[in-house]
Design brief:
By secondary structure, the chain is α/β, with parallel strands linked by helices. It has helices spanning 13-28, 52-70, 82-87, 90-94, 110-118, 164-168, 176-188, 206-209, 214-222, 242-250, 267-272, 279-292, 311-324, 350-375; strands at residues 4-9, 32-33, 42-47, 76-81, 100-102, 123-125, 146-150, 152-153, 172-173, 193-197, 229-232, 254-259, 297-304, 327-332, 379-388, 393-397, 409-412, 423-432, 435-440.
């Protein structure tokens, strides 16, 4: 009888691509993939270990599946991903119900690991993290018309608050021809939108080619027939070059959207984070981006409560947010072991960190409300994602909206029903919170 396997992938889009590569390996090995890991013989949890809340989510998922195993509904539990890579054998000691814990360098052997686990063998393996597969077949887990395209892994930026270099290793780019070939396969399978990802996409090519090659890669991706939108995520501010901005402006397939994680604007705090710049230099960068790429949407992430952040530092960040009018996500600083920031003096009280994050999030809500109000009465292109049975209308995303993190556009139709993956024209009539609503023309 064919054994079934289900994967729960937590955390970032980069982790999701790792899961898709594993799913392909499992499929090739003869396992039957099921969407719900709770209904599988073997459940794989592809964990996140970035910050405390993500680690807790991973542990909660493991414990939930462990209960199902006790009830006889699951035969084996396999843990991989960043939490497994970070804590190695400690996970097996703490979670006795787990049958296998493997580091990311073992992902290529996931089929053999699952077989051993199903046969009752306990497995622990932590090879070199640089053995993590970056290429290969994928079983796409997103909607058929959009996908992530991971162009590199690891990170050399070494921000003092971040454990990613410890977990994922040094930055390493994929070969350009392999990336383009993968994008072509995705498009042949129906993908209309590609979201380019890495821990730092703007660093792409520096290791393999001796210079920043993201602009060249984007130009090659733009030549793919049938590909409609290309979106660039996770750009490092120091490496936003004029060449990159020129390519964005000149190539119609590249949407005017940049995910630009800034983390803070205060020069002293940024230096303590091992990042460069200050409010003046970042303001100049953002103005240059907006001049070079008119109408660009900038999304960022910010951290409140970093060690030593004073009330004045926070007020400077709040004023910066108000002035720059970003789309953003804001997180309270998480004190992560084995990072330099965890050992710094002047750690901030948890309640203060959270309160400051809430203030920034409230500012963002006002910014997004104003953004939506300005779009009422305008017509925009929407890539259809599907039909919402509860709202009884269709929904999709505009060029302003990255999948899974940004709002949606909900719209009604008067006659013809659109199809998922189709681009339609929608007149915006209102908004509900941050989601736009309208009518398909």
């Amino acid at each position: 009888m064919q054994n079934t396997v289900g994967i729960v992938s937590l955390g970032c889009a980069k982790n999701r691509v790792d899961a898709e590569l594993m799913m392909y390996k499992l499929n090739e090995a003869g396992f039957k993939l099921v969407q719900d890991a709770a209904m599988a013989d073997a459940a794989i949890i592809n964990t996140c270990g970035f910050i405390e809340s993500a680690k807790q989510e991973s542990i909660d998922e493991i414990l939930e599946l462990a209960q199902l195993k006790k009830e006889g509904k699951i035969k084996a539990i396999i843990v991989t991903g960043c939490l497994a890579e970070r804590y190695n054998s400690e996970l097996m000691k703490e979670l006795s119900e787990v049958d296998a814990v493997i580091g990311i360098g073992k992902n290529a052997d996931i089929a053999a690991v699952v077989r051993k686990a199903l046969d009752g063998e306990k497995v622990e393996a932590f090879p070199d993290k640089l053995d993590l597969p970056l290429d290969g077949g994928r079983v796409q887990s997103t909607e058929p018309h959009w996908a992530y395209l991971k162009i590199a892994d690891g990170c050399d930026n070494c921000c003092t608050y971040c454990a990613i270099p410890l977990i994922r290793g040094r930055f390493r780019s994929r070969k350009m021809e392999d990336i383009v070939a993968e994008a072509e396969r995705l498009v042949r399978n129906g993908v209309k939108e590609i979201n380019v990802i890495a821990q730092d996409t703007t660093r792409y090519g520096e290791d393999n080619y001796g210079r920043l090659m993201l602009p060249e890669l984007l130009k090659k991706l733009c030549r793919i027939d049938g590909l409609q939108w290309i979106r660039i995520l996770y750009c490092y501010p120091d490496r936003i070059t004029d060449e990159l901005l020129d390519v964005m402006r000149e190539e119609d397939k590249i949407v005017n959207y940049i995910d630009l994680p800034l983390q803070h604007c205060n020069g002293r705090i940024l230096k303590a984070m091992n990042r460069r710049g200050d409010k003046e230099s970042l303001t100049a960068l953002i103005r240059r981006i907006r001049e070079k790429v008119p109408g660009v949407v900038l999304r960022t992430t910010l951290i409140t409560g970093f060690p030593g952040e004073t009330d004045d530092d926070f007020e400077e960040l709040s004023a910066f947010v108000e002035e720059m009018q970003f789309r953003l996500g804001c997180f309270a600083y998480s004190q992560e072991e084995d990072t330099p920031a965890a050992l710094m003096d002047d750690q901030i009280d948890e309640d203060i960190k959270q309160h400051r994050a809430e203030i920034i999030s409230e500012q963002e809500a006002v910014i997004m409300n104003d953004w939506c109000e300005k779009l009422i009465g305008k017509e925009i292109d929407v890539l259809v994602d599907g039909f919402d049975r509860y709202a009884e209308c269709w929904f999709g995303r505009s060029v302003y909206d990255a999948p899974e993190v940004d709002p949606c556009v909900f719209f009604t139709v008067s006659d013809r029903k659109p199809q998922a993956g189709e681009t339609v024209r929608v007149k915006i009539t209102d908004h509900i919170d941050c989601d736009l609503t309208g009518e398909m023309l």
